[in-house]
Automatic annotation (TrEMBL):
Keyword terms: Calcium, Metal-binding, Repeat
Taxonomic superkingdom: Eukaryota
One MF annotation (Gene Ontology) recorded for this entry: calcium ion binding
Keyword Translocase: no
Gene3D superfamilies associated with the record: EF-hand
InterPro entries: EF-hand-dom_pair (IPR011992), EF_Hand_1_Ca_BS (IPR018247), EF_hand_dom (IPR002048), S-100_dom (IPR034325), S100/CaBP7/8-like_CS (IPR001751), S100_Ca-bd_sub (IPR013787)
GO cellular component: cytoplasm
Protein name (Swiss-Prot/TrEMBL): Protein S100
PROSITE patterns the record matches: EF_HAND_1, EF_HAND_2, S100_CABP
Start and end residues of each EF-hand domain: 65-100
Length: 108
């Protein structure tokens, strides 16, 4: 778990978070689990994004070492073309994946 989530639970141990609140906390902690290993702690480098995608979404997206595919995903996510993926760009990815999963499971 990420430090912020632990901090929250330490200072507010009797607060029971709803499922959605837990999801938000998990979304944040997952980003920070990978960000900052190669640079700015508030962004994901291409290598950090690859690790996040393979480790956290590999079962959904398929684990890949395809450099061209990773380059395309990274370029598409990096909306401001600053060479890193910030939290807002990461949330956009998660939202798109969530929408696709919802559509898939709604059709069954």
């Amino acid at each position: 778990m990420h430090v912020n989530f632990l901090f929250y639970n330490f200072f507010f141990p009797k607060v029971i978070m709803s499922g959605l609140q837990q999801g938000v906390a998990l979304l944040i902690s997952t980003f920070h689990k990978y960000s900052g290993k190669e640079g700015d702690k508030f962004t994901l480098s291409k290598g950090e994004l690859k690790d996040l995608l393979n480790n956290e979404l590999g079962d959904v997206l398929g684990k890949s070492n395809d450099k061209a595919a990773l380059d395309k995903i990274f370029k598409d996510l990096d909306a401001n073309a600053d060479g890193v993926v910030d939290f807002q760009e990461y949330v956009t990815l998660v939202a798109c994946i969530t929408m696709l999963c919802n559509e898939f499971f709604s059709k069954k």
